[in-house]
Predict the structure.
Amino acid sequence: MWKLAALLALAASACSTVPEGAPRPPEADYANPVLDRDFSDPAVLRTDSGWFYAYATQAASGDRFLNIQMARSRDLIHWEHLGDALPAKPRWAAAKQKFWAPHVIHDRELARYFMYYSAEPDAATGKCLGVATADAAAGPFSDSGNPLLCGESIEAIDPMAFDDPRSGRRLLYWGSGAKPIRVQELAADRMRFLPGSTPKDLIFPDAAKRYRSLVEAAWTLYRDGHYFLFYSGDRCCASERVYAVMVARSQDPFGPFEEREEPLLEAAGEWLAPGHASVIDDGRGGDWIVYHATPARAQDRGRVMLLDRLVYRDGWPALAGRR
């Protein structure tokens, strides 16, 4: 197991002393993976109740498939798998079993949870972005009835919703394949794009650059005056696994973004092809990166979920304890 030193300002509190609704920081010492099952493309949400929820790409469970997997935790380390967050397939993708890369955001004003995800429609071989809603973080989520956006190939995948804390605009990032990562503003109901808005290209694939022949899995956060765009590049799942997490920054969520050449996270030791990361604030001022990777010695286990603490050095995020 890969042993990590997680050095927080406050040590983990005992269960009996944590106030109701307060998130618990990860313990001072733990080992990856934090969820040892096929749980790829994890996206983590911290709720007002103090629970962390993780949503992931479809996976087999016994004799059936879970369309969108879901798990929850109090401390980001001990996870309980909850089953299927999207138990009923959307009518436009009901005949296929191709669902992946979800992201969930909570709208307090609308008192709803919105899930954006990728699926292959019954009528085509391209990919689409879907949107589903629920009253609770644990679902069940129900699809809106129609895809939000479709593409000719695999460019319409990996959605990530982001509310800009400075402007209040509701944004959606997505993109993969031979196309760039893009962003576009959502309407107030979050079920469609804002009328009159257009997508903006942000990060472009570039085969001449390391880990850039394909770009996908955008995740955006705002910190210390910068918008940080985390993304993954190259091949996560081919026979030759070359995959890593990259990061870019900007002073505007629509860019332009300055790309850092060195990867934030790449293969090391036991873990191959780490990527498709989400970054979550633990509620006590610490940022954690949650991602999947393939065990080098047991690749048939699928892509399991790992965790690392982030720090910020010279205006860029870095893994704690590494340089």
